[in-house]
Amino acid sequence: MNNKIDILIRNANVINPEKGTIEKGTIAIYNGKFVEYDHDASYVIHDEINADGYYASPGWIDSHTHIFKDATEPGLAADLGLIPMGITSAIDGGSAGIATWPIFKSHIVDTNYLNIFYSINVSPAGQITERYPENVDPQYYDIDKLKTIMENDPEHVRGLKLRYGAEVIAPFGNNVLDKTIKLADILGCSITLHVTNPPCRMEEIVSKMRPGDVVCHIYQGKGSTIIDKDGRIKPAVIEARRRGVYFDSADARINHCYRIIKPAIEQGFKPDIISTDLTQNGIFSNMCWGLPVILSKWLNLGLSLKEVIADCTYNPAQIHHLPNGIGKFTYKTAANVTIFSVEDRPFHLRNRMGEEFDGKKMIIPQVTIINGSVRYKNLYFPF
């Protein structure tokens, strides 16, 4: 048995989202990976962290962000912005298309400490700006180039991204989604679908989605929504979930609505994934701020702590098929850990729809460990 440990986390309230448990425990890391720890054995320990009074979970995943810094206006600096938020892995939500993918791969995916994955935008240019919509005309879909990307970088690419808002697809007709689904079938990949301000009824959209596809901004309140005129979840939405379609909150500044969220939760329609859709314009604002605030909001909305943490760890890792044991505590896999506190701290949010929200409990990141290395530690955390 190995007698060396690089990082030993003691006395933490360990949240294991795969098992659905919270138990006092110890986490050992050596050579970048989780290792077994024998309380009766002797070890040479390089760094010991006393996490008494804190929680430790698999490293948080923000599974919908925009981090194509410098090449796109919405893109934020991934490591600088996200690591202090407790995030160890991020999925970019379609910032790059086939024309911009080479620079995204070489300058973003390959250079950050974060584990970075991405969906490829069906628009060749990707989502360069928020000033005007990207061109999603199916005549410009390039099967060969998309196939090349997926063959050359299977570790990081997570499928296609389509923004299916009325303002995006208006020039091209309602067959954009049908043609994107056909493209995904050919490529053998999933689709992450933006549905804020949809061009048709929500039930038509979710009825077309396939098992494994992800519908994001599912609690949006512009145009057709998941709620019918009587305040009930539409049967087609429930059927889509039963069929294996997944639903991501992807809250952002404008892609969530409390008059949709609250009745949905009351009826048991909770998100499969909690993410931010964070951009340069949303980071640190009181409309979004970032993942810790979004997680805190959902905790205050009535989800349990175990549910909230599963929605940013195990669930997105399984849904998006993330490699290297991401989202779990598994021996001999990459050690990604977030240590955090849950504190009584009031906070106030106001989204772009003019809705306001007040919370009382805040989830606060304390330590971020990425692939076995401490990349962030809160100044107030004991060291």
Question: What report would you give on this structure?
Answer:
The relative contact order is 0.16. With 383 residues, the protein is an alpha/beta fold. Helix 6 runs parallel beside helix 7 (235-243). 23% of the residues lie in helices and 28% in strands. The model has no long low-confidence stretch (mean pLDDT 96). Helix 3 (143-152) links the parallel strand 8 and strand 9. The two termini are 28 Å apart. It folds into two domains: 4-57 and 332-345 and 360-377, Roll (Urease, subunit C, domain 1), CATH 2.30.40; 60-319, TIM Barrel. The chain has helices at 78-82, 101-109, 143-152, 166-169, 176-187, 202-208, 235-243, 258-266, 291-301, 305-310, 314-319, and strands at residues 4-16, 21-30, 33-35, 44-50, 55-58, 60-65, 87-93, 115-121, 157-163, 191-194, 214-216, 246-248, 337-350, 356-370, 373-377. Strands 1, 2, 3, 4, 5, 13, 14 and 15 form an eight-stranded mixed beta sheet that branches. Strands 6-7-8-9-10-11-12 form a seven-stranded parallel beta sheet.
